[in-house]
Amino acid sequence: MSDARATTKPVPVPTVDSEGFWTACAGERLTVQRCGACGAAQFYPRNRCTACGSADLSLIDAAGTGTVFTFTVNHRAPTAAFAAEAPYVIALVDLDEGPRMMMNVIGCAPAEVSIGMKVRIVFEARGGMKLPQATPA
């Protein structure tokens, strides 16, 4: 029995908390949550502020720029859907607004990626959605 997921990249499934984030991504806008009580910015979208516990959260547009905090080069694709891209970079990117996001670094060779590298966010179309990815700034 074949598994269609093995040849198709996974697509996020929006939740009540993340729906606004994914809607913004569809319009190629990166957003993070901002707490109205303490001002903290956070990612991933959730129903409470991780800093103070407040439910007073709203989505704000992010600049779409950041810095590579750390990364790894994946040489073995987890499924056939990623095989053509291997080796590829998975990075933790510190957004200029503060939150840290995990994403791929695209648009350059893996050997060109470095800790501290400035990046900008671009969007990859996938299964009717758009996912944030990083590319050299």
Summary tags:
mainly beta, three-stranded antiparallel sheet, 137 residues, globular
**Broad shape:** globular
The helix-strand sequence is HEEEEEEEE
The proportion of strand residues reads 35-45%
Total number of distinct structural domains = 1
Could you estimate the helical fraction of the residues in percent?
A: under 10%
End-to-end Cα distance, whole Å, is 44 Å
Task: Return the average pLDDT rounded to an integer.
Answer: 95
Characterization of the model:
This is DNA-binding protein. Residues 61-124 form the ChsH2 C-terminal OB-fold domain. Residues 22-57 form the ChsH2 rubredoxin-like zinc ribbon domain. It holds the Pfam family zf-ChsH2. The protein has 137 residues and is mainly beta. The protein has one domain. The protein has one helix at 19-26, and strands at residues 31-35, 41-42, 57-61, 65-74, 88-95, 100-105, 118-126, 129-136. Strand 1 (31-35) and strand 2 (41-42) form a beta hairpin. The longest helix is centred in the N-terminal third of the chain and has 8 residues, at 19-26. The mean pLDDT is 95.
Topology, element by element:
Layout: H1 19-26, E1 31-35, E2 41-42, E3 57-61, E4 65-74, E5 88-95, E6 100-105, E7 118-126, E8 129-136
Antiparallel strand pairs: 1-2, 1-3, 4-5, 4-7, 5-6, 7-8
